[in-house]
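Blackboard transcription, Thursday session:
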Amino acid sequence: MVTSDEVGAIILHALEALNEDSNPEDRIAVSLETPLFGADSGIDSLGFVSLITDVETALNVDHDLNISLADDFAVSRAQSPFATGETLRDYIMTLAAGQ
Amino acid sequence: MDLRGQFVVLRSLRVEDAGLTLGWRMSSRAALLNSGAQTVAEQAEWIASRPASELNFVIQLRSGQPVGMLSLVGIDETNRRAEPARFLIGEPEAVRGLPVAVESMKLLYDLAFDRMKLKRVYGTVVADNPLMLKWQKYLGMKEEGRLRQHYFIGGSFRDAICVGMLEDEYRAVALPRMNALISTATGDQRA
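(Written on the board underneath:)
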């Protein structure tokens, strides 16, 4: 079973990878408090898709979890799972518990 | 032809857009696109000479502010295929927090698969543009090959990755993901 700390590390690593692939002016803070998507986020759509692709891949390769982050279940949540790194971590732990 | 979504309108590119679109294409964000016109006059001439096999759009916010461009080129009605191309968000600050890129692609795919009844869309992505490659794949494109030293950009030759998506893959993969991304982007409004 993946731990909350491990999921947090995956998200931070994905943020670091996003910064490496981005122009200097588009780089964002590598923190679980970083807004990921929405009005408060400094991440554009291409960056956001890159981020969730990297997170899904790491969960699958490193922890054998086949999770789709952007789907109807994510939409149904009262709070967007993509508000910050922390909300994404908590959402992933909810999905992982169901597998 | 205008394509209207919840957040954006894709309206036909006009000669009067030459100065605006040239500015976008000469920005650092467009560094990995093919080089093109260097002056407003050249850009205007290029716009005026677009063939019937292309549909070129300016991406506008619902307020009317132009923020980017997107095209469907190489439209082949016999083989029922076309190439989404020239995708560029030129005003990143204006679209912050809005699912402009996703909805623009959704409107273009809706045009291709639902209105024009195409069976396939395809394209190439510069190999050292990982963000665009992940974007295309996440939105349903599959990698189909590699063209070695296909582009000469910024003083060096670059490989191109060939990608393509069939109609059934669009409906099974791309459309649900685009709908989810658009909905989650507006989650704070819904909650």
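Lecturer's comment: Residues 45-63 of chain A form the longest helix (19 residues).
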